[in-house]
Amino acid sequence: MDALWLFGDQLGPHFHSVDEHAERDVLMIESRRVFRRRRYHRQKLHLVLSGMRHLADELGDRVTYLQTETYREALAEYGKPVVVFEPTSHAAEMFVAALHEEGLVSEILPTPMFALPRAEFADWAAERGTFRMETFYREQRKRFDVLMDGADPVSGKWNLDAENQSPPPKGRLTLGVEEPWWPTEDAIDDEVRADLDSWELDTVGVDGPRVFAVTASEASEALSHFIDYRLDDFGKYEDAVMADDWTMSHSLLSVPLNLGLLQPLDVAHAAEDAHRDGTPLASVEGFVRQILGWREYVWHLYWHMGPEYLERNKLEAHEPLPDWLLELDGDAVVAKCLSSTVDGVRDRGWVHHIPRLMILGNFALQHAWDPRALTEWFATAFVDGFAWVMPVNVIGMSQHADGGVIATKPYASGGAYLNRMTDYCGTCEFNPKKRLGDDACPFTAGYWAFVHRHREMLALNHRTARQVSSMNRLNDLEQVLEQERQREVY
User: Fold this and answer.
1) What is the pTM of this model?
2) Which Pfam families does its entry note (predicted)?
3) How deeply is 336 buried, as exposed, middle or buried, from its count of CB atoms within 10 A (0-12, 13-18, 19+)?
């Protein structure tokens, strides 16, 4: 029986310890070239290496663990054909296909990393031609019988998103929920940290204590802790942001999920069980929507759209990413929300979905940053970012560069949204209510500059036509546009 070659995001027992795979030897390869290829966040490299080395330690003599410059060198050293699961990027898929043709890979197996197999999604999509995430999500609920009451959704509603949009509680610095589960570093983490220091790689961000699960047992603990102590409060404040509470009630499970340590159906069923035990449905449904809905949708659309999707740039945005973003220098910007978010990426390689979409993504959209470069930045600067994760999230959802394939309107907003959904504005030098003047909020003024730049397109969209009409009624529009053309301080 050929050995199983596991990549660094295929670390869970459902890859190596079920069915016939439990009988296979395992090959794992650290390719130094992979770490040098891009400018990754330091903590991301730590998480991947720590996860790989912890699994090798767990599997013991069953594993051959090779450290080489390239994958090919390791495969040549190993000297026998191997079996692999479908990899998680177009480039890796092409590489594995070439190895298969050469006989170095004997078989390519469907990945168990997602609930719905790729072939089934392809058939489902082919029958429809066009579809939306909500349609896919409902089909997922039916297909896997999650939060269902026979043929109907529990409570009679598919989506409780309207109950997931409360602003942060006033008069509080934190949400006040139980802290997340935190891992305890060990000798393997010490070894990883020493190796990364000695390799002198060009990375971004700072080194720091490991705050995400990298083993199956850790991931199971993190999931259980979230379900037991934090899921209750997740739904209501899912879209809120608090300066002094970066975790709020989020699960912090994106890293172990994207390292292949948890099966999404297991995660969804754990949340479903919690609802039966009394956890509010709005929290459970909102979480399940992230796991079985959006995450699976993003994965399948990565393959459905193909590598050419990265080239889409419908809004003709070509501005280079600024140095303060590339270097994660939050001190170089003044806006409290922007500075704090950049600092969060610097310090831990992670902020939750609203800072990503409505602060970083919104600012990038307003300033016409190149969407492909932004996609690459998100994939390397975030510890849960991988090639499959970011194209739909950035090209489609965040930057509207696909012209509306993923989202029916651009996710652009002014300071009013940030003032409602975050607690940054009260201590910021800029005023979210002002679009003109030294203290004019760059998001508020930038929003009108964005609407003006794309007024013809927005006027044709029934969801954004009103904003164009509102812009046309501004008596200081030309002054605002000139101010934003000359603005140097954000």
Assistant:
1) 0.96
2) DPRP
3) buried
